Amino acid sequence: xxxxxxxxxxxxxxxxxxxxxxxxxxxxxxxxxxxxxxxxxxxxxxxxxxxxxxxxxxxxxxxxxxxxxxxxxxxxxxxxxxxxxxxxxxxxxxxxxxxxxxxxxxxxxxxxxxxxxxxxxxxxxxxxxxxxxxxxxxxxxxxxxxxxxxxxxxxxxxxxxxxxxxxxxxxxxxxxxxxxxxxxxxxxxxxxxxxxxxxxxxxxxxxxxxxxxxxxxxxxxxxxxxxxxxxxxxxxxxxxxxxxxxxxxxxxxxxxxxxxxxxxxxxxxxxxxxxxxxxxxxxxxxxxxxxxxxxxxxxxxxxxxxxxxxxxxxxxxxxxxxxxxxxxxxxxxxxxxx
Amino acid sequence: xxxxxxxxxxxxxxxxxxxxxxxxxxxxxxxxxxxxxxxxxxxxxxxxxxxxxxxxxxxxxxxxxxxxxxxxxxxxxxxxxxxxxxxxxxxxxxxxxxxxxxxxxxxxxxxxxxxxxxxxxxxxxxxxxxxxxxxxxxxxxxxxxxxxxxxxxxxxxxxxxxxxxxxxxxxxxxxxxxxxxxxxxxxxxxxxxxxxxxxxxxxxxxxxxxxxxxxxxxxxxxxxxxxxxxxxxxxxxxxxxxxxxxxxxxxxxxxxxxxxxxxxxxxxxxxxxxxxxxxxxxxxxxxxxxxxxxxxxxxxxxxxxxxxxxxxxxxxxxxxxxxxxxxxxxxxxxxxxx
Amino acid sequence: xxxxxxxxxxxxxxxxxxxxxxxxxxxxxxxxxxxxxxxxxxxxxxxxxxxxxxxxxxxxxxxxxxxxxxxxxxxxxxxxxxxxxxxxxxxxxxxxxxxxxxxxxxxxxxxxxxxxxxxxxxxxxxxxxxxxxxxxxxxxxxxxxxxxxxxxxxxxxxxxxxxxxxxxxxxxxxxxxxxxxxxxxxxxxxxxxxxxxxxxxxxxxxxxxxxxxxxxxxxxxxxxxxxxxxxxxxxxxxxxxxxxxxxxxxxxxxxxxxxxxxxxxxxxxxxxxxxxxxxxxxxxxxxxxxxxxxxxxxxxxxxxxxxxxxxxxxxxxxxxxxxxxxxxxxxxxxxxxx
Amino acid sequence: xxxxxxxxxxxxxxxxxxxxxxxxxxxxxxxxxxxxxxxxxxxxxxxxxxxxxxxxxxxxxxxxxxxxxxxxxxxxxxxxxxxxxxxxxxxxxxxxxxxxxxxxxxxxxxxxxxxxxxxxxxxxxxxxxxxxxxxxxxxxxxxxxxxxxxxxxxxxxxxxxxxxxxxxxxxxxxxxxxxxxxxxxxxxxxxxxxxxxxxxxxxxxxxxxxxxxxxxxxxxxxxxxxxxxxxxxxxxxxxxxxxxxxxxxxxxxxxxxxxxxxxxxxxxxxxxxxxxxxxxxxxxxxxxxxxxxxxxxxxxxxxxxxxxxxxxxxxxxxxxxxxxxxxxxxxxxxxxxx
Lengths: 338, 338, 338, 338
Description:
- Chain A is built from eleven helices and 15 strands.
- With 338 residues, chain A is of the alpha/beta class.
- In chain A, a hairpin with a 2-residue loop joins strand 13 and strand 14.
C-alpha cells in the first residue's frame, strides 16, 4: 500500500484526492495539505484523510509519503516540486510547472539531479484518455496515412464565464494559451512526435468586452506549423454554450479522426421539442474522469515497477514554451518562430 | 405539355397542386376542383389555375385533361377514381383507395377493365423517396445479406394531436393502421417482395385518454410475420415530441439499415444550451417533399412513354387488407392470420 | 478490507475476478474456485489470488470469506447460492438463478430464511450502468411524461455466432429469452415499476438454419404488454453485424430516450473510404465494464453499511418467469398471459 | 417561357444544362455552345437542345436568348460575359469571373454600364443551399448571439486527386484559394456582412509531393480576421478520404452551428462490420444539386419580376481579391493586410 499525500484541494485537487481515496487500488491517501481549513475539513470527513497540514514542508517532512500530488496554484508549484523531489518523495504535479520558462527550467534541473531517486510526472491527462490513446494507436498503425493537419479546440463551458471574469480582475491566468491551449499543444506533440516551428495567434472578446481591460481572452486562436509542415489550428475559449468542448481532429492522407466533435455525456439520445440531441460533458472532471484515474495509476505503476513516467518535465517545459510564444505572437500581432 | 387537374385541396392536395403548377417540367395544372370556394380561390391566385370546378364530373367532362390527381376524402375517392378511369383520364389517387376491401375490389375491377386506355397509380410516395430507394438497392445488391427483421415507425408530430382529437370526435380516420401504418405495410412489401401472413395489434392512449371514447389510438403497435418468417414490428402514432418520425430499420444477416432514425431537417447541427442537436422534419410535406414530386414525375413518364406505373391498384388493395387485419386483431386482441 | 472469493472463471467470472482484484477499493480477492486448473493458474498469476479451490464447499468452509461472487454455470448455481447463504457468506450471483421457476423459488426461500445474516444480490448490471441510471432519472423527473412504449434490443455480435452454434449442439442455453432477453425484462421492470401481463414471442433462423435442429434462435422477438398497457417490443439476437447492440428506447408522452442506438466504443468518429463512422463496443465486458464494477461496489456498500441490495432474488425470479413465458408463447405460437 | 442558352458543357456546365432542360419550370433550353463536338452531341441527344453552336458570339447573335449561363473556362469567361451583357442577354456566370483583379474590374464596369437592361448573377450557389440559408436565418434571428469565429472546410474527394495531378501538370487552377476557398470566402461575407481584413495562408503536399513542382497544393489553410475581429479559419483541400467535405462552423456567443460536419448523402445509417456509418456526398453536383437549381430559379425570378440578383459582380470581385491575397500570403509566408 503506497502512502499518498495531496496539496491543493480546489476543483482539480479534489478530483485527484477523491481518486486517491477511492478509485486506485494499492494506494492510501494519508495526508492532505491546504491553506483553507474548510477544504481540510472536507478531506477529513469525506475522504477519511488522517493527517492534515497547512504547511507543505511539514507534510513532506512528517507524513512519510511514498508520493505526493501537487495541485496547488501555479505560483507556488515550482517550489513545492523542488522540495518534494529533493526530499525523495515521488512527485506528480499539475501543469503548468511554472509561469515562466526560466522558472520551469530551474525546476527541471532539480528533477534531473534527483531522477535516480524520485519519479516525476506532470498532469497532461489527455495522454491517458482512452479516446486519445485510441486515436494515437490508429495513427501509429498507419490507418490514416501521413498526418497533414490537426485542429484542436479546448473551450470551457459558458457556465464558468462569470466566475472567470471575476477571477481575471484580480488574478493572472497566465493567458488563454498557457492556461488552456497547453493541453492541446502537449497532445499534438504526443500524437505526432513533431515540434512546433511557428505560430500566429489572435484573440477577441465578444460576450464580455470587459476582458479587454484585464488583458484576457474569451476566445483565442492560433495557426501553427510543425517542423515537418503539418498544419495546426488551435481554438481556446471560455464560452462554450453546450458544455466542455475538447475536440481534436487529425487529418491524414488516407483518413481523418475526430475525437469528441460532440462531447457526449453518455450513450443516451434525447428526442424532445428541441429536436434530437445529445447531452454534453459539463466540465473537465466529468469529461476526463477516467483519464485522471489512469494517469495516477500509471504513475503508481512507474513507482512500483521502477519505470520511466509517461509525461516528464521536459514535456511540460516545451508546452509552456510554445504557449508563451503564442502569447508573444498575440501581443506583437505577427508570426513568431519557435 | 400534359394538361393536369386536381381534386381536393387540403394539405395533401395542395402539396400535389403546388408541384403540378411549379415543380414538374412538361405539365400544366389547368383545372382544380373542390367543394370549398376559398380553396379554389387560393388555387387561382397562387397557382394560376384557370379552370375551377365544384363538381368532379364537370371537371372530367369539360377540362380536357390528360391526367387527374385525386386527393379528395377517402369516402368519395372510389367513385372519383371509377369516373375518371372510365372516361379515359389517367388517374393518380391518394391512398387508401377506399375504406373497405369490397369497395377497393370494385374500384380495382374498373381499373382492370380500362387498363389499356388509362394509367392508374396510387400515392405510396415512399417508393419514390431517395432514402427508401437507396435502402432497396442496398438490399437487392445483397449488401446486408438476407432480411430477417424490419421495424417501421410512422408517427405524426405532437403538434397535430389537438387537431386530431377534434377531428376524431366527428370523423372516422379508418383507424390508426389504415390511416398511418398502410404506408409502412406497402413499404415493407416493396422492400422485401414478401407478403404479410399474421399480425397481433395492440394500442393505448396515454396523452389523450379521451381518444378511448371515440375508438381512436394515440399509439398502436403490431407484431407481424411475413410469409418467409421475416419478423416485422410496426409502431403507428400521433404524438411524436420532436417532429415527424417515419423510421424504418431493416436487419439482414450481414448488415442493418436504418432509414431516418433521426428525421433530420437539414445538414445543420446546433450546439446550444440544450446540448448538441439536430432539428427535425415537422410534417409529411416537408419530409417527403421530393418524393411527392418524384411520384408524379414517374407517373407522367408512364403516361408519355406508355409504361406500367410503379404502384398499382393491387398494391393499394393488399395494403388495405393487411391494415384492416391489424384493426381486427386489435379489436379481438388476438393473433390474426391473413 | 473485505475478503472476497469467486467461483467460475469463464468470461463473466474473469470480468468479476479482475474487478475484485484491481478495481474496487476496500476489497481483496483472496480465493478463487474453478474446476479448470488452467483458470486457477491464471487467477494466481495475473490476479495474485492466494487460495485456489476446486470445490466450492471447500472454499466456503475454509477461506473465511466476507462475500462470494458466483459466476459458475446456471446448472450448479442454485446449490452454490444455497450453500453460501446458509453459511453466512454474503452472496452475489450471476443471472439466471436457475433454469426453472421451481428451482429459483427454492433458492429464494433459502435466501429469505437467511436474510438477516446474509446479503444477496443478483447480477442485473444494467441497473448500475450510467446510461440506464440517467434514463431512469430522466423518466422519474417527469421529463418525458408518461411512458407509453419501450423497445429493447439485446443482440450479441456476429463474431460469436460460430461459437454459439457449436455450443448449442451440446448444451442448453435455456433459450434466447432466458439467456438474453432476461436483462431487458429486468431493465424494463426497473425503469417502469410495472409488471409484464402478456406476451407473444416469435423467432427464426436465417444465417444459420441448422439452429432450427437444436431448437435455438438466431433472432427472437416479443410483443409484450405491461399491466398498465405500456407497450413493449423485445428483440434478442446472436448475429449483430457491427458489435454488441444493447439498445433501449423509451417513448413518453412528452419525449423519448434512446439508450445506445449506436453502441459507441469511444468518442472518436472516423472519416474514411467507408464514409463517416463510429466504432462499436464488441462485447458485454467492454460495453458494461463500468457497470460490472459499480454493481459490486454497490453490493460492498450494502454489506458494510447494512443496506438492502438493489437487485434481489425476487427480481431474478420474476425475470425468469417472464422469459419462460416468452419461450412458452414461442412454442405454442400464441399470446400467453402472465 | 424563357429561352435559355448555355456555354461550356463540362461537369459544371452539364449540371446547369440538365437543370435548364428538366428541372426549372418556365424555362426552355434552346441553345448550347461548346468547342467539343461530342459535348454538343450529348446536349442534343439527352437534353433535346435544338440549336448547337461552336462560337459563343454566334449563339448570342442568333439564338434569340432571354438569358445565358456561362460555364466555359475562366480564361474565356470575361470576354463572354462582356459580349452577352453588351448584347442585352441576361447573364449567369460561374465563378471566378476572371483570373486577375484587373480583368474582373473591367468586366464589372461593363456590367455596371448595362445594368438597366441586363441582369447579371454569379454562381455562388451556397447562398441558395437550404442548409446555408437556414444557418443565416438562425444567425439573423439572434439565436446564436454575436458571431465570434467561423471555420470553413472546402475539400474535394480523394477520388479526384489523380485527375487533378494530371490537370495541374498542364494547366493553372488559379491556386487552391482562388479555385476552392473562394466559395467559403463568399459564404462568410454573406453570413456575417463583414469584410476580410488580414490573412496568413500556408499549405503543404503530403499525399502527392510532386504537386510542389507545379506550385499547387493538396491542402491549404488560412487564418483570417474580419473587420470586426471575427476570427476565421479556412481549410481548402483536394484529398478528402470519405467524400466531398464542405463544412462550415459558426460560433456565436450563445450557440454554434455546424453545417454538414458529416456530408450525409441521405438519411440512411448503415450498421455493418465497419461499425455504424453514414455514407457521404461524393461530389459538388451531388451535394449542391438543389442549390444549383435554386440559384437559376432565383435568377429567372429576377429576370421576370425585374429584381436585383442576389449575388452580383461586386461579390465576385471581392471574393477574388481575398483569395488572391491568400495566395500572396502563401508565397511571401507572412500576414497580409487586405
